[in-house]
Structure formats: structure tokens, C-alpha cells
Amino acid sequence: MTLEPVVLLHGLARTSGSMADLEKALSDEGYPVLNIDYPSRKFQIQELARVVRAEIASKTAGAEKVHFVTHSMGGIILRYIQRYDPLPNIGRVVMLSPPNHGSEVVDSIGDTWLFGLINGPAGKQLGTDENSIPQDPGPVTFEAGVITGDRSINWINSLIIPGEDDGKVSVENAKVEGMADFLVVHASHPFIMKDKTAIKNCLFFLRNGHFYPHQ
User: What is the reported pLDDT for 1?
Assistant: First the structure.
């Protein structure tokens, strides 16, 4: 049986190479995988969404369903696409460490020169105020599972973020209204897509619509 394709969307200031472990795991299971590389540091989220959507549409034409695994800002880009120019054949989606309600780190240091140099214009759009991009699309209208981490390797950021966090996003702010399932793993924001428990649950969600029970 031919499985439906899975699109991978990396996070801010990363590349498709950061999703290589997931790409291999999905390919080993028989999924056709489209691991998209997009210029995350060059444009605002609105333009990134347009670029990413065009590539998805051109490379998955004819697919009955297209599933997704996203990391960090990749999930916000997908939510933005589905709010303003939705893909009609979207299937199941796993979001890894998404700032679905923004990050207090951006609130605190997003206007600094160094932050802008590292993260570009899209990074400045990921705050928690009501005008930030993560607050714009509203509840998800697709079958989404969210996996986030509770381990930080950036204690300075974690001093800014209230509650448990992964060094960039709080556990609470990873959640999104309308999600089908939610899971916390002991992983940090930059490396959650390499975490074995996260990968195992990505595969399980794509097949079943929920994560492994009793975790």
C-alpha cells in the first residue's frame, strides 16, 4: 500500500538538514517525504507562508492527503497558510515545540540588534501580544498533535519564560485550541526533532490520530 506524503517544515534559523532524522524515520516506514528548505531568516511569516505553500502545492499535486511534521516556526507558517490560503488536502499534522501562543523571549529581546541579526524579520513576529502572528490564525481546523519539551539548554531564556519550558517556548504556549492530542517529552527546543520518543510519537500520530497512550 502506498502511503500518503509527509511534508517536513523546519524551524526559524534552521535548514531542512535539521529534520534529517525524521525524514529517515518516515522514509523507513514507507512514507514519501518532502523535506522543504525555506529562507526562514529573510522574510516575514506572511511571505514565507506564500513561498512554502507554493512549493507544497507544486510537489504534492494529485495527493489525496498531505500530512505534516513541523518544528517551531514551521508550525506557525502552516497555521498561517491554513488560515489565509488553505491547502484543501491537508491531513494529520504533528507540531514539535510550536510557539502557538508566542514566546516571552521575543517579547523581552526581540527588538535588539543581535536578535534581529540571528533571527531576521520573522523572529520578531513570534511574541505573545495580541498582534503577534501566532495569535492570528485562531484554533486549528485540521487534525493536529502537539509535542513540546520540558528541558532547557538555555538558562538565560528560561529565566524569562514562566513555567516549564524548552528554552524557547513555554509548555503552555505550545498548546493550541482545537488540537487532538498533546505530549510533553524531556527534550530541548533545538533538538526535539531528534528525540527518539518524539519521533516514535510522530509516526504513531500520523497513523492513528493520537499519541501513544499512558505516557
Answer: 60
Q: Looking at residues 28-49, what average pLDDT do you find?
A: 97
Please say if the pLDDT value at position 50 is more than 60.
yes
Three cell numbers at 105? 523571549
Q: Choose among 127, 25, 10, 118: nearest CA to 73.
A: 10
Query: What SS3 class is residue 199?
Result: helix
- Asked whether the beta carbons of 66 and 31 are under 8 A apart, the reply is no
- Tell me, what's the pLDDT at 62? 87
Q: How many CB atoms lie within 10 A of CB 1?
A: 3
3-state secondary structure (DSSP) of residue 123: helix
Polymer length in residues for the chain:
215
Q: How far is CA 47 from the centre of its chain?
A: 17
Sorted by where each starts, the structural domains of the chain and their CATH numbers stand as 6-208 (3.40.50.1820)
For residue range 145-178, what is the model confidence (pLDDT) as tens digits?
999 999 999 999 999 999 999 999 999 999 999 9
Q: Which of 6, 4, 81, 80 is nearest to 36 (CA)?
A: 6
The whole-angstrom separation of Cα 109 and Cα 8 is 28
- 41, 13 Cβ separation under 8 angstroms: yes
CA 63 to chain centre: 22
